[in-house]
Amino acid sequence: MRLIDPDVQAYVDSAVPFCVKPLRGGRERPIRVARTLLTCSLAAAVLNEMGAMPETESAYVFVNVHNPARTLHCTGVMHRWACRPDRASHPAWGINWAGAALICRFLGARLPRADEWVAFASNNDPRRVYPWGNDPPSDALANFGEHVGSTTPVGHFPASDLGLCDLAGNLDEWCGDTDTRNPFERVVKGGAWSKDAHHLAIASHRSKWARLGTTTIGLRPVWDD
Prior knowledge:
By secondary structure, the chain is of the alpha+beta class. It is built from 4 helices and 9 strands; from the N terminus they run αββαββααβββββ. The strands form 3 sheets. It has a 4-stranded mixed β-sheet with strand order 7-6-5-8. The model has no long low-confidence stretch (mean pLDDT 94).
């Protein structure tokens, strides 16, 4: 499927080929991974291509537009989505799990499973602690621990050896998995701008209520090859 917005199409076309190698044998799975989290400007463009309706109820459906700090909003009689100009290159937040899954589906993609996320974050190396290696996190490597106080533009920090950006810090990333302890929560990986250093470890495992669109969770689509 070719998309109308050229920037969205370029985002899809720039995905990185990767082969998930199971730790305990089994068949390798080729996928393609988005180089960056979906940005605010791209999220608005995708929502417009989808024909997504504005969020009018306090119990939002997909996008939390009720947070005063929101970066995505829908205005005008044509119901066009837009993002704050100063956040265009920042990763989109406020999109709940269902919204993230729907956006991925529209792009012909899906949310990664947690084991796939671990595989591409570590480049299939189970000994790797962080996406960049085993050195402890610092403010030169990632946005975390309130060092910046908000998100940073995607790609501001060094990419992984696969060329994937912000796998640790900036925003947590929705995964497709339901949390085994709570069926109403979905797994998130990666850590965020406000999280402590231990959340940036590849092995760190957390979950969030699927209905929640927060300031600390974004999305990174993957495509099956």
